[in-house]
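Notebook entry, cofactor series.
This is the third protein in the set we're modelling with a bound small molecule. For this one the ligand is guanosine-5'-diphosphate. I'm keeping the input format identical across the series so the outputs can be compared line by line later. Sequence and SMILES below, as received.
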Amino acid sequence: MNKIVVIMPTYNEAENIGRMIDELVGKEFPKIKGADMHLLIVNDLPSDGSSDDGTGDIVRKNMEKYKNLHILEDKKQGLGWAYIRGMKHAMSKLNADAVMEMDADFQHPPEFVEPMVKAYLDGADYVIGSRYIPGGSIPKEWAFSRRAISYFGNLFIRIVLLKPKIHDLTTGFRLTKVKGVLDKIDLDNLMEPQRFAFKVDLLYQSIKNAKKTVEVPLKFASRTKEKSKFDKKEMIATFKVAIILGIKDKQRFIKFGTVGFLGFLVNFLFLRFFRGLGLVEMLAWLFSTELAIINNYVLNNIWTFKEVKIGGIGKTIGKFLQFNLTSAGALVIQSFFGPLGVKLFGVKYDWLVLIFVIVFLVLPYNYLMYNLVIWKTWKLPWSKKKT
Ligand SMILES: Nc1nc2c(ncn2[C@@H]2O[C@H](COP(=O)(O)OP(=O)(O)O)[C@@H](O)[C@H]2O)c(=O)[nH]1
Ligand SMILES: [Mg+2]
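Returned structure with ligand:
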């Protein structure tokens, strides 16, 4: 049976934690069929050594009653580290098949655990509790300004990370499959682990690793007791992480462009070189073009797409042949739209036509082919079905 560990960080949550344990472990978990549910509380103690409000004692008392309740306790290092410690413990000590991230303050109502687990059991390897899809909501009593900040902040991150299909990128309520998703993430090197902002990095990497990401509606509740620990500093850090990740994403495109430019130089210089050797024009073109293709394949493989580098002789040969085919596609595009453009705008503007064809047709085509066909870093919606 699938073992699912709900990781719940707490910092001075004595007012909430007892009732949360009863509602979640006592009432909700037994309703969930098909999964072995556990709750792991990661309680932080004040870093100055002073005593906390007794959250840990309440948990320990409940552990006598619930065998599927666990606790980790340490000095406060921030929310991210609490989750990282919890996730490592869940994977290595509790042998979890999946983990959930959940708050202790009832903002993630316990009854929403079941539909998320169901989505996982139905084949999703990353499940997002989403406030911004039909059936989900943010608290009615939130003031307009707070709604606007939440909505536009989220929209901003969606745009920066180029994730239009996912509607809630800042939610804290999520389920992650261990095998293939969480165990592929380098938890020790997440961005801003002392802050809430680490969640954006975690989400970004999880979506990348996951074959099937599903959003499940979440009715986000108001905080019941005490006040939120999320403030302006946290918000700025969150945007910062999103922007850095967004740029990292474009880094690949910048490398791709650089390699393409080098390929152009190789083509240009060797054309002259082979001509100089006395080769007939057609062969000079053929050889120099092929050298440019080799240049592009090798550099893109070891640099632009180094994270998904293709190795091994058999695979390299197969992929290289495929690469030649997609490159031939670019030539076809160029030799169709080039003459067409010249016909439309006159030979005087052939250079403009060339730039236009390369920038708006050849580059996007190549980038698409590399990501989709050669190095397969992008997934099509319909190829996501396999798990
Ligand atoms: N272990 C641990 N838990 C924390 C820390 N900061 C916040 N939490 C917990 O994380 C959850 C979310 O915190 P909360 O203040 O409600 O943030 P908000 O819901 O984003 O406003 C709650 O369960 C908190 O007790 C921390 O530094 N360490
Ligand atoms: Mg909260």
